[in-house]
Amino acid sequence: MLVVMRRGATAEEVQQVCDVIEEMGYQARPMPGAGRTSVGVVGNDGRVDASRIIPLAGVQECIHVTKPYKQVSREWKADHTVITFANGASIGGTDVAVMAGPCSVEGETEILEAARAVKAVGAGFLRGGAYKPRSSPYSFQGLGLKGLEFLACARDETGLLIITEAMDPEGLAAVSEMADVVQLGARNMQNYSLLKLLGKCGKPVLLKRGLSATIQELLLSAEYILDAGNPDVILCERGIRSFDTSTRNCFDLAAIAVVHQLSHLPIVADPSHGTGHRAYVPSMARAAIAAGADGLLIEVHPTPERALSDGAQTVSVTEFEAIMKDASIIAQAVGRRLAPAIA
Ligand code: PEP
Ligand code: MN
């Protein structure tokens, strides 16, 4: 439930509402807004009885949140969440953010070369996994801590913001210390103990949709992170399993529109994992921006055929350049702007 206070309600009135909510056995989450304060009620698993709250001084109305998730819902917060970074970049506002780079960090010179290339084409974020969730234990598993160090070097040289995946609590401690955005991969979307830790990691989180997760399950996973104290969550549509083998996954464009209706959180699109083939990445990147995606996550490699993971879906720098040109035109057509390249 959301308690909406009247315009001009005093701090004492807000406090009294919080006290009553706590007395009822729930937790109160005051949220000061531009015009008025709202107080969210969490900790309930069913409908909250509003009869003790409605008569309190300063209360305008009580809104029952009808969805199983609360804090990520539009009912809870009508305005889009915009996540901002120290260098002025943002995700969730007018700018469409671009995160690009290889699937995996393969070495220092390799990631530096990729970083320079994606920066030159206009990406604001460098992606690359140091910890890799691979289907086979015999596939390249990532460079771990060394990979994080190489990413840090790439950031130092280029100024690109870094997004990289954490797979377990130990890795999360290292990743959240170093990265600008912590990625939680599709295979861990429902790792609830990790989700709770992400709520305390102190960095924005990019939460990828699980391989067979519904949009509601994606939003419930995001709810764990917000409920544990981290409001900076970026959702990511990366395709879901289907019966069709023409693509690696079924890239669910509609999820972008659905998420924007149900939630205030930004959603970015990953047409690389969404399709699994580099030939389909440009058209799906265009479509995602047209559908309202707040950003793109694209696998780019200076020599995709030599990539240590996900080469088939990885575009070359030249292909990435063409994607960026189209993305800029489409962003403008839908009232957005491709985030400006960093200096
Ligand atoms: C990745 O981004 O390289 C990755 C492993 O993605 P996903 O978790 O979506 O499979
Ligand atoms: Mn990958």
Structure characterization notes:
With 343 residues, the protein is an alpha/beta fold. The chain folds into two domains: 2-63, Phospho-2-dehydro-3-deoxyheptonate aldolase, domain 1 (Alpha-Beta Plaits, 2-Layer Sandwich), CATH 3.30.70.1140; 83-338, TIM Barrel (Alpha-Beta Barrel). It is 33% helix and 18% strand. It is built from ten helices and 15 strands. The protein has helices at residues 11-23, 108-121, 145-158, 169-178, 192-198, 215-227, 254-262, 271-275, 281-290, 317-333, and strands spanning 2-5, 27-32, 37-42, 59-63, 83-84, 90-91, 95-101, 125-127, 161-165, 181-184, 205-208, 233-237, 267-269, 295-299, 337-338. Strands 7-8-9-10-11-12-13-14 form an eight-stranded parallel barrel, surrounded by six helices. A four-stranded antiparallel β-sheet has the order 2-3-1-4, covered by helices on one side. It has a two-stranded antiparallel sheet with strand order 5-6. α7 links the parallel β12 and β13 (267-269). The longest helix is centred in the last third of the chain and has 17 residues, at 317-333. It is elongated, with a radius of gyration of 21 Å.
